[in-house]
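G., the chain you wanted modeled:
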Amino acid sequence: MLRLSALILSAFVILLTAVPSASGSPSPRLPQGCVSGQTENGDPCAAATKSGAPGAPATSGSPGSPAQPARVCAQRVGNGGETKPVECIFQGGWWIDEQQCYVKAMSPPLPFTDSRWLNHTDGAVYMCVALGADATYATRFFWSQNAPPGLPYTDPSVLAQQAVAALQLRPIRMGMVPEDKPGYVGLVGMPVWMWVDTPDPHTYGPATNTASDGSVTVTINAKVAKTLWEMGDGKSVTCNAAGTAYQDSDGKKMSPDCGYSYSKQGTYTIRATTTWDIAWTANTGQSGTIPLTLTATRTVVIGEVQVIVH
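Predicted structure as tokens:
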């Protein structure tokens, strides 16, 4: 009888240990640096630090539910590994431990001609605001192909830049008469024709593309709005259309939509700069534009008619 009671007691103990506790469900795997699965203001790690001391725990949830600690952000101080708590959000930037600063993507994005792109055409340029002594701040910029680890949201403007880069937009192929070939010389006062030679979606548009990250999708539409022809003599011509290609049957006629004539002989370097109209929209309701100009160059030789008097 005693032996039977011992067996029943042992089975009861085993049954108790097999029953999950009230909070016994496995904790979800969190991103690096996160201490809570709570979400607030777009921060997937945890709720933003509430009022009070930076980094202090915050509570949320239904009455009687366990307190959820806030995301803890810490700045390294000194060389001994010491840290001090800091606010996790500052002026729209999010504290990134790896960068030790508040990071946010540039909005609107910088044009590709900006030196901070470091000659890249993918990824994005980010602003990094670091904390200094005596409540001062130092701002720097850095390029990254991927969003910095821990950046808690997808910026549609960054996706738009990626979609534009994937199109591999290029300067136009310059069509001109006189041609840029050995022995081809234009004449002072004679018509010069300019046009976009064999335009395609990569050189003149229209072109469209999409980019997605998670639930965010951005669609871009791109086309050339105008072409500025700088003629090398200090003057320029703005053409709002692709121009008309010259035909032998046109003779000495002026171009109907994109032409010029030189008043002095010489060798001129011509720059054709296309200004793109690029608009993007996101399924989040956000939208914007991206400035972009691309330039092609060539030379033209202009001479004068020599009159021989006998």
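The radius of gyration is 32 Å.

Shout if anything looks off.
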